[in-house]
Structure formats: C-alpha cells, structure tokens
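Q: How do we represent a protein-ligand complex in a form that can be generated token by token?
A: Start from the inputs.
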Amino acid sequence: MPGSDVPTWLIEIPGLAAVLFIVLTGLVALVLVTLFVIDVVQRKNAIRHNYPLIGRLRYLLIHLGAFLRQYLFAMDREERPFNRAQRDAVDQASRLRDNTVGFGSTRRVEEEGAILFANAAFASLSEQAKTADPVEIGPHCRNPYLAPSFFNISAMSYGAISKPAVRALSLGAAQAACWLNTGEGGLAPYHLEGGCDVVFQIGTAKYGVRDGKGGLDIDRLKAVAAHDSVRMIEVKLAQGAKPGKGGILPGAKVTPEIAEIRGIPVGQDSISPNRHLEIADVTELLDFLARIREATGKPTGFKTVIGDPAWLDELCSAAAKRPDDAPDFITVDSADGGSGAAPQPLIDYVGLLVRESLPLTVDALKRTHLRDRVKVIASGKLITASPVAWALAAGADFVNSARGFMFALGCIQAMRCHLNTCPTGVTTHSKRRQAALDPQDKAVRVANYVATIRDEVGIIAHSCGVPDPRHLERRHIRVMTETGRTVAFDSLFPELSE
Ligand SMILES: Cc1cc2nc3c(=O)[nH]c(=O)nc-3n(C[C@H](O)[C@H](O)[C@H](O)COP(=O)(O)O)c2cc1C
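Then emit the structure tokens for the protein with flavin mononucleotide bound:
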C-alpha cells in the first residue's frame, strides 16, 4: 500500500496463513497415513489391523476408562458372559504380564455363592512346591495317554473357528504341552500342524468319519486315529450351550475346504442331528465307546452336560457291571458353556452348571468304584486360575477351556461367532479379517496363557498348604452364604472315599 506504515510481512499474512494451513494439514495427513500403514502392516493387534486408525480409539477408551470409571459406571465385574476383569486376566496371562494389582479386589466376594479358598495357617514353602503330575487316561487301552497338563484346549471345530485360529492353537498347544480338542468338525491338517496332542471329537454328524447312512465309518475313524498325535477319542453327546441340539454351522461359514473336510455341500447351513442315531440309552453308549476303543486302541470317553443327576447313577451302575467298557473319561460341560452358534432357549435355560454337575459326577463314579478308572474333565467358564483351582479341588482331573483360549487369540467378546464377521479373525472365514491373526504370534500367547494358569493355580495350592494343584480338595473351598458366613464345600458335597 503506497504511503502506508503497515509492515509488508503483515500484508502478506493471508498468504502465510494459507501456507501454514497447508503445511499443518499435510503433516496431520502424513501422521494419519503413517499410523494407518503401521496398523495395517502389524499383526500383533487384530482390531488395529482390521480397523486401522479407528481401532486405536478402542485402546484409548480402555486406557481412559481406568480414570473415568468412577464418574461413569463400574463395568469391571458387570459384563457377561465374561466381564472385563476376567478378559483382562486372560489377556495379561497370555502376554506373561505381571498379575500384581494395587489397592484392592473389585470382586464381589461377599455375594451369596461366591467361592473362596481356605488358606492354611502355614502356607507351603516355595521350595516344597512341585508341578502337577501327568495323569494317565485309559489304562486298559492299547495306547493309554499320559496327559501332561491339567489345563487344556476345549472342543472348537475348524469351521466354528478360523484356519489361523486352529493353527495358532495347534502350535501353542505343542509349546505348552497340552492337548487340543478338534471339536466336531473333523480333523483338519491345521490341527496336526503344530505337533500337539490332539483329542478327536465325534459329533452327532460324525464329520470326517461318517458312512453313507450317517453312521460311523469305522475304517475312516481308524485312519484318523492312526495319527500319532491323536491321543484320545471324545464322543460328543452334548455341549452345555445346546444340550439336545447338534452342531450348527451357518452356510456363510461353510467354505469349500470346510465342506471337503466335513463331507457336506458348500455354502449351505450344516445342522447336525440332535443325537447320535446309534445311542439311545446307557447300554448303547457303552457299546459305542467300546467299539471305538477296540478299533482305535486309544482312550475313548464322552462329553455331555448333565441334566437329571439320577442319570449319572444309571450310567455308573451300568459301567460298573462292565468296567472294561466304561468310558475312559467323561467331559462334564457346564450349562453356561460357549458355542459358535446355539439357539437362545437352550443357551439360556437348559442343563446344570458345572458347579453342581462336576461334584455330582465325581461322586457317582466314587460310589461305583470307578473313580480311578474314569477320569473327569470339567469345562464351563473356567478361564482364570481360581475357577480352575476350584474344579481341581471339587474333583476334576483336568480342566478344558474354549473361550479362555479365544481371548488368548485376541477375541474381544464381540459375540459375532455365528455371523462370520468376527472383528479379530478368530471365528470368521473372511480372508481380510483373518489376516489380523498371526498364528506364530498368537501361538506364543496360547502357550503363555497355559503356563500362567498352571503357575497361578499352583500359587493357590501353596496358599492352601498343599504342594501342588492336584492335592487341592473340597475342604479347601468355602462358599459364601446369604448370612455372610461361609460353609465348607464338602458340607454341600461331602468328599466320599472310594
Ligand atoms: C466357538 C466355539 C465352538 C465350539 N465348538 C464346539 C464343538 O465343536 N464341540 C463341542 O463339544 N463343544 C464346542 N464348544 C464348546 C466348548 O468346547 C466348551 O465346552 C464350552 O465353551 C465351555 O468352555 P468355555 O466356558 O471355556 O468356553 C464350542 C465353543 C465355542 C465358543
């Protein structure tokens, strides 16, 4: 401006502001693009991989939640089926993070039914601690199984869960020296890939071992059992989430490969019969188990959820009369067990909880002097050390978990297993979403999770004054009553001698 006193740089400000704006926008865009690329390329975190940038908000909110919780609501112990405290515990365990917490417990220990352990006045010394011994299953078989781990991977079929999930579980189980149950979808090459011990499950559709009429093709079963890794055969009568209903695999999840392994049409809903055609009573069950054991030479048992407790006496009395044909193991699943897909009325209302059915099963076996012969495996929300310790103390020889291992694989409980849209790649066959699940990385988490559970159950055992988890007994458990006093678990379910 001729004759004006205004400095020239000020006159040029509009231009400068525009330049600054462009530079800043460019920088922000560069940062966002860089973060986007980092998120997509990394495979340690499934949510960030599948939802680059936006996924970061989840972790920001989780982080801020710790500080804002008191102003909003305490979700730590509220969510179901698993609350945040439980999910975090598995996550921490799978990363071998320190389990030390500060300030105090957020668990509602005073609630009726809450379980507490009775610590000894003089705890076992760390030097006296020992690891839990392996336990033999199927002593009368041609190939008994000396099972090394009391904590193992429960049945989840290839189909319900994804290929990378099965691969990670197989590799992780091998590292942890625990078993992996195939679930009812047949034996996939990915189950064998890691070289772990495998339990082959026969569901009502007999996927992979079915004859032309829907019955058991014993030669196909022999071929499966011929794999050295296949250590036991589990006949699935029922699972806790859907007793009386067979497996359900929605058509969206029936890929050509899964159809091939199961022997079913591609893309169509695969609904298993709601019970084994050849098993309508206890005698037929024992016949079926004996036939499989004879053909495969491997320990053979069954999985079920207990409904009428009287049935246990019927089973055990029949088995006691023909002990050679008794099941080598019984897997007792809880009514609140998980599923890839189950009808709402069954998932919510049918069956007994493992809290009751486990001690009932153990006692029925003891009354018929079968307890040594028949090993008991418990499952159903036993995903952290304390409920695992409870199950061992209540009488289980082994504990299985499905959803605990899903959390170790990165599951965030989005509850979309039946929709093929799992955001973390665990239960989807979408290649894009699966890319977030790196089997090698997650295998380490699976192994860490098992190691931590073993270690933490050991800590509870030592606090109770016994040298290892297998020495926990019912007298070590106390149950909170409405009066605020606890009662001994063995007053509810007295410990029977054999
Ligand atoms: C995704 C998914 C798939 C499952 N598939 C099977 C199966 O094929 N056969 C079976 O007997 N149970 C199956 N289950 C049940 C589990 O093996 C287990 O009994 C139940 O979830 C309880 O254990 P949890 O509470 O640790 O999950 C499945 C569970 C889930 C979550």
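The pocket of flavin mononucleotide is lined by residues 154-157, 160-161, 183-184, 201, 236, 239-240, 247, 303, 333, 337-340, 379-381, 383, 401-404, 417, 427 (CB under 6 Å). The first helix runs from residue 8 to 11.
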